[in-house]
Amino acid sequence: MKTETISVVKATVPAIQASGEAITQYFYRLLFAEHPELQHVFNMASQASGRQQSTLAAAILGYAAHIDNLSALGGTVEKIAAKHFSLDITPAQYDIVGRNLLRAIREVLGAEVATDMVLTAWAEAYQKLANILIGREEQLYAEAKAEGWNGFKAFKVDRIVDESDEIRSFYLRPLDGKPLPEYRPGQFVSVKIASPDWQYEEIRQYSLSDCPRAEGYRISVKREPAARADVPAGRVSNHLHENLKLGGQLAVHMPGGDFFLKHTDRPVVLISGGVGVTPMLSMLNDLLLKNDSRDIVWLQGAHNRQSHAFAQHIGCLKRDYPKLTAVTFYDDPSAAKQGCDYDHQGYITSEWLAHYCPADAEFYFCGPLAFMRAIYRQLKGLGVDDAQLNSEVFGPSESLD
């Protein structure tokens, strides 16, 4: 990338910071007006809530701010490439996005700020990033092809289990009966769903909630109620709960994702809130199945006994594996028995983290965004290094800092 391009893009950081969300909101309007079929790909619930627009604005700002040191964005690039892989994004779609993004920058910032020179610099910068992502995604597609997996594959529902009053597990087996490739505990699959009541297909990502098994996958889906009056209930989660029956079929993409269990000598701490338990459980089951020698701490937060998913399973593991320390927190323990259903009332605090967790551990945490931000701040306050922290945000990626 030319030196003058880097200088021009960095000079636009204040303008992007001031108008980033206005740019991304206008960008999506342009994009869907020109290519309405892309609504098959984008999560329209995240569009309705505004999370997708704010996340894209932060990503554009981050790219502009670090354009002279792209190595600082390595983790972000891998996360984006993994998500694009799960959606079967093509190189041609990068051209569509780039064209509409440049138009949005020009029309929101105005020609006096977004001059021809600025747009030329941003076009070069965008193409540089697109080439990096396309190259990584091509590697992922090649790995999938080597496993005999191309795009979305048909699975049937082999078993359904209610894990709590809001989380239901679906056991999925491939229709072709072929053994499945291994995945890394913590990774997710995409599922594609069509309904005669919907204008567009919907694609969602769900963490695999068990350790790798050659015969099938398990996803555990929380039925999502309406978060606000102006945001509808989760379309796909409610559809799965209400309409996906035993013997039904589901289109599933090959597993992927950059959040997975690392194999080190450090103790492992797995922290979850709500449905964030799903990737944690995949990691836990894998550690115990493989007789990993490390000490394991499991900290799980739930609202109450009714919403406490996988309680019986964790209770059995706690009894059978002495190296596992499993602790449950309820913020509403009514109708529950302390010492049996749960261990502590309230939230997971820095005091409890310091009490239960080895300071030199690898920490993995997942849950609602506010929960994750609280855990991140507490661990940083305890002096835990960023290199020890591993997390997954469900939905558009957002900063925990």
Report on this structure:
With 401 residues, the chain is of the alpha/beta class. It folds into 3 domains: 3-146, Globins (Globin-like, Orthogonal Bundle); 152-253, Translation factors (Elongation Factor Tu (Ef-tu), domain 3, Beta Barrel), CATH 2.40.30.10; 268-392, Rossmann fold (3-Layer(aba) Sandwich), CATH 3.40.50. The protein is 42% helix and 18% strand. The strands form 2 sheets. A 6-stranded antiparallel sheet has the order 4-3-6-1-2-5, covered by helices on one side. Helix 1 (3-11) packs across helix 7 (116-146), helix 2 packs across helix 6 (91-109) and helix 5 packs across helix 7 (116-146). The longest helix is centred in the first third of the chain and has 31 residues, at 116-146. The radius of gyration is 22 Å and the shape is globular. The two termini are 30 Å apart. The model has no long low-confidence stretch (mean pLDDT 91).
